[in-house]
Write a structure and sequence with these properties.
Radius of gyration of chain A: 15 Å
Helix content of chain B: 10-25%
Mean pLDDT of chain A: 80
Distance between the termini of chain B: 34 Å
Mean pLDDT of chain B: 86
Structural class of chain A: mainly alpha
Number of strands of chain A: 2
Order of helices and strands of chain A: HHEHHE
Largest interface: A-B, 54 and 81 residues
Shape of chain A: globular
Oligomer: heterodimer
């Protein structure tokens, strides 16, 4: 695991722009919606995971919240 | 193969894996959108994922075949009261809510570190992880920029570090959900810690990770 110092500076800058961390109330909502979506399918595979997160975050975005509330949630890997 | 991206909904949008480098690392590319029209954004055309390297993505995509939901084992962990850290109010409710969704569908194992109780220990988690297909971690994260392998998850009796995770055989590890509730709050120095932990979880054997960028 390597650390990219330039990226770190960029991320720090980003945080100072958005000005705050993930909202306390949002993570539980996204988590719950994500698993609800995931459990609608008979199997769990990579695509189902990615689309389930997309649906959960879209639900948060649709409430009209500012982007700093929904944008932090991201998917990594397969 | 090149094809034009078209605005669509649901699974009509292709998945795209971003592998950003240098200054583009950890920018929320998936959230890019028009300044004039907030509804006109990247997310209308694709469903984004990130990978730190192409090798990590290729390794993560090697089997397994799709797993039937009824056979899944999930480990749901909340540790609100790790030493010298701000108490996390939200994590117990979060794991209860997730447990409510999963418990009728799969064989879920829930562990809660309630304040004043013994909490979740490093030994407990290292013992439970090898069985788990899904791991949901709701706790503080710690990023050690000098010694990245010492980064990890803050439990009641210490930190479960990346180097300890690398020692484990995790043949079943499919999905890790890292709930970074309050982890970066008021600490711009650690703004990217959740991203680093997400990438680290890929390297220790999880194939698919949900994390937060700040």
């Amino acid at each position: 695991v390597s650390v990219n110092p330039r990226a770190h500076v960029k991320a720090s800058f980003l945080l100072s722009v958005v000005g705050r961390a993930v909202n306390d109330a949002d993570a539980p909502e996204v988590a719950k919606a994500f698993y609800q979506e995931l459990m609608k399918e008979p199997v769990v595979d990579f695509d189902n995971i990615a689309y389930a997160l997309d649906t959960a975050v879209a639900r948060l975005r649709a409430t009209g919240l500012d982007s700093h509330r929904w944008a932090p949630f991201a998917h990594f890997g397969a | 193969m090149l094809f034009p991206l078209q605005m669509n909904t649901g699974r009509g949008r292709p998945r795209v894996h971003w592998c950003p480098t240098g200054s583009f690392s950890f920018l929320p590319l998936h959230a890019a959108r028009s300044a004039e029209n907030a509804e006109q954004g990247c997310f209308r055309y694709m469903v984004s994922s990130y990978t730190p390297t192409l090798a990590a993505l290729l390794k993560a995509r090697q089997s397994p075949s799709p797993l039937p939901v009824a056979e899944l084992k999930a480990l749901l962990v909340s540790e609100p009261a790790s030493p010298n850290r701000e108490y996390l109010d939200c994590v117990i409710d979060e794991v209860n809510a997730v447990s409510g969704v999963l418990s009728s569908k799969i064989s879920a194992l829930v562990t809660q570190g309630i304040k004043g109780h013994d909490g979740v220990s490093v030994d407990f988690l290292t013992g439970a992880l090898p069985d788990a297909v899904i791991v949901h971690l709701a706790c503080h994260g710690q990023q050690d920029l000098e010694q990245p392998l010492n980064s990890g998850f803050c439990l009641r009796d210490g930190i479960l570090t990346i180097s300890e995770l690398m020692r484990l055989e995790l043949p079943n590890a499919m999905l890790a959900f890292l709930s970074a509730c309050e982890t970066a709050k008021g600490d711009p120095k650690h703004a990217d810690q959740a991203v680093h932990l997400a990438a680290a979880m890929l390297f220790v054997g999880f194939r698919s990770i949900v994390g937060t960028m700040w």
